[in-house]
Amino acid sequence: MPRQKQTAPSKRRPFVTFRVSNLEDAEITARARAARLSFSDYARHLLICGPIETREREVLDPLAVLQLMRIGVNLGQLLALPDAARVHDAVSQLKARVSPIVEEAIDAEFSDDDAEPEDRTKMRRVRVSEQQQHVIKALAKGSGKSVSDYAREMLTGGRVVIRQIHEQAFPHFDELRDLGGFLNSKTHKGNAKGKTPRGLPPVLGRIHEILDAAR
């Protein structure tokens, strides 16, 4: 029986593959040239040795933001009543405090980090060894990103950023919710009768105190 011919071991090496936009591809190429490296050498070096940075950000508890939004709406309705001049100063002062808190919380929720991604139609591949591929996959997984996202962010930005968001508890939230419910009830009655309800100053004053504690 003829001896089976032995084939040479495969010399194929794996790739790290990722998608980029034309602008991102030009940026990576420019960075590689500035470093006096080929695209592949530059990519391999950064994907394995590039820095990973952790950025922490505190955001307001979403339930507290929702409650403050409702309070702000009620305050606006109170200011629109025909006899609003009677409580205008107290209501407008509280509204001036509540509105910026809500706006800041919304801005933080919809920051540039969540911007619409570019049209990434260009495929890039970087040849690596199996060991290098294993390391890159582990680094991507550890940063909470896909290999493609990890590669693109590392090569375009020179680093990968891990964002950790912590919800900030709002002090006296249960009381704020109860006060918000009371204010909502008063506002509905005021709208029905066409005049500002009584008993607002203590409620508005206590909400001010809770906002002071939340600073």
Q: Your description of this structure?
A:
The strands form 2 sheets. This protein has a two-stranded antiparallel sheet. Strands 2-4 form a two-stranded parallel ribbon. About 2% of the residues have low confidence. It has 215 residues and is of the alpha+beta class. The protein contains 8 helices and 4 strands, in the order βααβααβααβαα. The chain has 2 domains: 94 residues; 96 residues. Helix 1 packs across helix 2, helix 3 packs parallel to helix 7 and helix 4 packs parallel to helix 8.
Give the SSE layout:
Layout: E1 15-20, H1 22-34, H2 39-49, E2 52-60, H3 62-79, H4 88-109, E3 122-127, H5 130-142, H6 147-157, E4 160-168, H7 173-193, H8 200-213
Helix pairs in contact: 1-2, 2-6, 3-4, 3-7, 4-8, 5-6, 7-8
Derived structural class: alpha+beta
Strand order of the largest sheet: 1-3
Number of strands: 4
Rg value:
29 Å
Low-confidence stretches: 6-10
Tally of helical runs: 8
Secondary-structure element series: EHHEHHEHHEHH
Could you give the distance between the termini?
A: 87 Å
How much beta, percentage-wise? 5-15%
Total domains: 2
Shape: elongated
Largest sheet: 2 strands, antiparallel
Whole-number mean pLDDT: 88
Keywords:
215 residues; alpha+beta; two-stranded antiparallel ribbon; two-stranded parallel ribbon; 8 helices
Structure summarized in a few sentences:
The protein is α+β, with helices and mostly antiparallel strands and 215 residues long. It has helices at 22-34, 39-49, 62-79, 88-109, 130-142, 147-157, 173-193, 200-213; strands at residues 15-20, 52-60, 122-127, 160-168. It has two domains: 15-56 and 116-167; 61-111 and 169-213.
